[in-house]
Amino acid sequence: MTTDIDWATDEETGPAIPPMPADLDAEHILAASVMARPDLVDELAAEFDPADFTDDRYRWVWYAVEELRTSFTAGEIRFVAVDRQLQAWRAEGRMATVPLTQPQLASLAQAAQPGSAAWYAERITKKAIAARIVALGHDARLRGSSPAFDPDADVAALQEVLDGIIRPAQGSTAIPIGDLLGAALERAVTKPTNADRIPTGFMDLDSLLTGGWAPGQLVVIGARPAMGKSTVATGFGRAAAIKHQITTLFASLEMGEDEITNGILCAEAKIPLHHLKQGIVDDHGLARAADAAPRITAAPLHIDASSHVTLPGLRAQVRHLVRTAGLRLVIVDYLQLMQAPRAENRQAEVAKLSRGLKLLAKEFGITVIILAQLNRGPEQRTEKRPQVSDLRESGAIEQDADIVILLHREDAYDKESPRAGEADLIVGKHRGGPTATITVAFQGHYARFVDMAVA
């Protein structure tokens, strides 16, 4: 029989737990079918999870067939053998459920329809998804009506459950190598195109990265405080959105909208930042600002300077902008200021964040650049150059990242350095490509980094 959704309500106690959707007819037939054809357990494994049985008795029949099928190389597994296995598990205390009796198993065997097993499995899976939706809705109502409702924690928890409601098919993404070889041979004689790449704004870095940032990449920019990581991140956003009309989202937890806009205008118009802040920009500067304003205004650059950015909130923004504006690049400034999912310690929280951001890039086919604070390692060494191991709070950041770039300026430690005005973009990790150190010019008065040839 099929059970439909029925929201029951008790006037005194509030909303009751609704009956869960189920298709007991399909469960009955599927359990009988795997007894008749044990190989269905393997055949359906890619699309069907036995946990989706709502009747525990049928689920244990499936498990019994799974256990016995190696002993029965052909034909059906008799209900007597299934009964013997179930009773053994029951005696061992492995089953809390009272299993089907031998007469019930004999009757069950008569319902087998192995030729239609996949169809019945799909019916069960659909009902299981519906049941998880109903349960999520009930949980959302309880959380929303609770006096202890916490928007950050509760919404994040519900989002995590929602993302997992449709379970990925186990093994369904595996492809025989023979089906992939043709494309590999074609790539061997076809020069790669950079059409899907996002220029970084630096010629040597673009060359190293074969044209720029790639879809699905998680890029980490690490630096100690006051090195200019927000400035270099803004530069990446300007290169994409203003110079190449690539839709970009800049989410800043450290700077406000005015500060970001000031920096972009100064970088584009070559206006001294301190002049703008003091309101003393001269006529020449104003003329350059007027010239830069139309291209800045036309740029598909979206700025979110709210001080409270969560992974679910960012995901919602990305989903919206991908659909409505063709979003391709997301920049987050910076990782350690993001509201992290709750975990047993800070390292685990940061690990969840970095993994979530990598999955975000992969799922939507965009590039995600995150800024990250380095620990005090560089200050404690004679050689101040940072290392990938200096990434603060979690080795998972390095593990999840496709590219790690460390920003270093010698004049931040020594004002008299002969390299004053220079900065190193140390590509310390480049999955699938070479590493190198790219030297660029730091023009702090214009709030920008530029190629050495431009400086």
Task: Report on this structure.
The structure is a single chain. This protein is 45% helix and 14% strand. The chain contains 16 helices and 13 strands. It has a nine-stranded mixed β-sheet. A two-stranded antiparallel sheet has the order 1-4. Strand 12 and strand 13 (448-451) form a beta hairpin. The longest helix is centred in the first third of the chain and has 29 residues, at 117-145.
Topology of this structure?
Layout: E1 2-3, E2 9-10, E3 14-15, E4 22-23, H1 24-36, H2 40-43, H3 56-68, H4 79-92, H5 102-109, H6 117-145, H7 151-163, H8 177-188, H9 203-208, E5 218-223, H10 229-244, E6 248-252, H11 257-269, H12 273-278, H13 283-298, E7 301-304, H14 311-325, E8 329-333, H15 346-364, E9 367-373, H16 395-400, E10 403-408, E11 422-430, E12 436-443, E13 448-451
Parallel strand pairs: 5-9, 5-10, 6-7, 6-8, 8-9
Antiparallel strand pairs: 1-4, 2-3, 10-11, 11-12, 12-13
Helix pairs in contact: 1-3, 1-6, 3-4, 4-5, 6-7, 10-11, 11-13, 14-15
Poorly predicted spans: 1-13
Indicate the percent of residues in helices: 40-55%
Strands of the widest sheet, in order across it, are: 7-6-8-9-5-10-11-12-13
**Beta-sheet strand percentage?**
5-15%
Q: Order of helices and strands, N to C?
A: EEEEHHHHHHHHHEHEHHHEHEHEHEEEE
Overall spatial form: elongated
Largest sheet: 9 strands, mixed
Counted by DSSP, the helix tally is 16
Distance, first to last CA = 76 Å
By secondary-structure content and strand pairing, the structural class works out as alpha/beta
